[in-house]
Design a protein that fits this description.
With 346 residues, the protein is of the alpha+beta class. Helix content is 29%, strand content 19%. It is built from 13 helices and 13 strands. The strands form three sheets. It has a five-stranded antiparallel β-sheet with strand order 4-5-8-6-7. A five-stranded mixed β-sheet has the order 12-11-10-9-13, with helices on both faces. A hairpin with a 5-residue loop joins β4 and β5. α5 runs antiparallel to α9, α11 packs antiparallel against α12 and α12 runs antiparallel to α13. The protein starts with a strand and ends with a strand. The relative contact order is 0.13. The C terminus is likely disordered.
Length: 346
């Protein structure tokens, strides 16, 4: 690991100033991903700006009924928070589906969003990787890419984003709050992460020096039936092969609102806009769900080794959507109330 400067920020302004004063600096929160990458030689910051003492570790209910999640709220605390569990179960389930209990105790909300890809070629400094070293090539494209993208990939990068939390936030229409030298701005969670294009080294739309300060959960999706489901190679401590977060509102027998986001299929959480549009105003039947999801997945471009992800994602999405439909009194089936929190598939 290379030597680096260390600055402990006492305020947001101090953090931004310290970052600007050290070209090549990184913000340090829980460090569960950054420190690992430093040990591998993937990340080589000139300075670490420690933001763990900033007052960003609370969950606050705002006057309009929305929730503000501070960027330093630990993943375990977020998943266990009563208002998150009760109003946004998809988020609690997604957080609990990620990593181990020990890591969730250390990892932060902001850090979870900013974690880097788990592509093995990105983590191996002996291999070419445009994300790690722009212009060097993409070893994954002709290498082993069973876990890689089927949507939105480019000739420069086929990596996927590993966050479970980010998938749920995209489906919930959440926003990410950013602070920088130009002030505060908000970005839709579904648009916060980028597709690789010709600049795969840029994971997000965050500008140099900006710091994630909070995530905003809207009142509009609070209390709606929602769920997260993840398929992975083993039952615990494994990244998704495919996952889906769904928020579904059925009113007067038709779909009034649908938020669907897939994980592990692209360089960012993949918001299923086409499927959502196809569902609005339709009866919430399994056939309608199948048609809508097929419409979305028809745009997938699987690679040599990962075509299995398309039917896997389809089956996950259709099953979760079907289980979220409210059942008539006395009818059989789990419905929204009987949906299991999350299922760990092998």
């Amino acid at each position: 690991m290379d030597t680096f400067a260390y600055v402990r920020a006492g305020s947001l302004a101090e953090a931004a100033e310290a970052y600007a004063a050290h070209p090549g600096a990184r913000y340090l929160g829980g460090g569960t991903n950054l420190v690992d990458l430093m040990k591998l030689g993937v990340e080589r910051p000139t300075a670490l700006v420690d933001v763990t003492r900033l007052p960003l570790d609370e969950v606050t209910e705002l006057p309009d009924g929305s929730l503000r999640i501070g960027a330093l709220v630990r993943n375990s605390d977020l998943a266990a928070h009563p208002r998150v569990r009760d109003r946004y179960p998809v988020l609690s389930q997604a957080v609990l589906a990620g990593a181990s209990g020990q890591l969730r105790n250390a990892a932060t909300t902001g850090g979870n969003l900013l974690q880097r890809t788990r592509c093995p070629y990105f983590q191996d400094v002996s291999k070419p990787c445009n994300k790690r070293e722009p212009g060097s090539g993409c070893a994954a494209r002709n290498g082993v890419h069973r876990d890689h993208a089927v949507f939105g990939h480019s000739d420069h990068c086929i990596a996927t984003h590993p966050s479970d939390m980010a998938v749920a936030l995209a489906a919930l229409d959440a926003e990410v709050e950013l602070y920088g030298t130009a002030g505060v701005r908000r970005v839709a969670a579904a648009e916060f992460h980028r597709l690789p294009g010709a600049e795969p080294e840029r994971d997000t739309v965050i500008e140099p020096g900006e710091l994630v300060t909070a995530v905003l959960l809207p009142a509009a999706t609070a209390g709606l039936p929602s769920a997260y489901r993840k398929a992975r190679d083993r039952a615990s401590y494994a990244f998704a092969l495919a996952s889906v977060a769904v928020v579904l509102e059925v009113t007067d027998g038709v779909v009034a609102r649908a938020g669907i986001a897939f994980g592990a299929l692209a360089h960012r959480p993949w918001r299923a806009w086409r499927a959502e549009a196809a569902l609005l105003g339709t009866a919430p039947t399994r056939a309608a769900f199948e048609r809508a999801v097929e419409l979305e997945l028809s745009e997938a471009r699987p690679l040599r080794d990962n075509a299995y992800k398309v039917p896997l994602a389809r089956n996950l999405a259709v099953d979760v959507l079907t289980r979220l439909v409210p059942r008539e009194p006395g009818s059989q089936g789990p419905g929204a109330q009987g949906l299991r929190p999350h299922v760990e598939d092998s």
